[in-house]
Amino acid sequence: xRLDKVLADMGLGTRTELKKAIxxxxxxxxxxxxxxxxxxxxxxxxxxxxxxxxxxEYHPFEYYMMNKPAGVLTAxxxxxxxxxLDLMSAERRRDLFPVGRLxxxxxxxxxxxxxxxxxxxxxxxxxxxxxxxxxxxxGSLTGDDVRKxxxxxxxxxxxxxxxxxxxxxxxxxxxxxxxxxxxxxxFHQVKKMVEALGDGRKVMTLKRLRMGPLVxxxxxxxxxxxxxxxxxxxxxxxxxxxxxxxxx
Length: 248
Ligand code: URA
Fold this sequence. Notes:
Layout: H1 3-9, H2 15-23, E1 27-29, E2 32-33, E3 49-51, E4 54-56, E5 63-68, E6 97-98, E7 107-113, H3 116-123, E8 131-138, H4 143-151, E9 154-156, E10 159-160, E11 165-170, E12 175-182, H5 189-195, E13 202-211, E14 214-215, E15 225-227, H6 230-239
Parallel strand pairs: 7-13
Antiparallel strand pairs: 1-2, 1-3, 3-4, 5-7, 5-15, 6-7, 8-12, 8-13, 9-10, 11-12, 13-14
The structure holds uracil.
């Protein structure tokens, strides 16, 4: 990758600003000043880069777990509303994106990365990555509802959800709490499946707790994000059938 692109991805400025800075001699690669913005960086073996005398930690791929709060869009940018990327630190790299989508009012586990291959595989139906949600539901739930989920609910004229697991945690009276595991990720899927149970049942709050092997860290406050541990990253790669190289 070009040197100016590497520095821009790391959030150090625009490509134009960085080209100028490189030309002025503000950047070293392996302790040599480099003035050519097109200088090629091998991502698999990143050299030692400094910008304005400070070491630039470059990794081709980065992975973060966020505890998404309700009220924030799962998008990279929006003109009017706050997005999950607005919640990340200003020094973050520029090419991160959320893997999959949680509704604006849904909370919980969201993976952010710049690794397109991993993201694609985690979302691809053939990899069957399960997602676990906890929902507060208006109305009570019964064993019959558990059976309907297990058999696959038809929730739109042409859409039938694949078999899913409904575990009732609390029920009775006007509301229930349940854990729901789905293997797909269709638009508003959990909400629509609950509505399809009928009798006015509706999701009131929804929180994602797990995606494949990745479990929401209970120490993360809503709106906070942290890098994945090596172990979490290795588990995700394994689940997506990608060989793991801790150096990248
Ligand atoms: N299902 C939904 O209905 N909404 C989400 O945000 C995620 C899954």
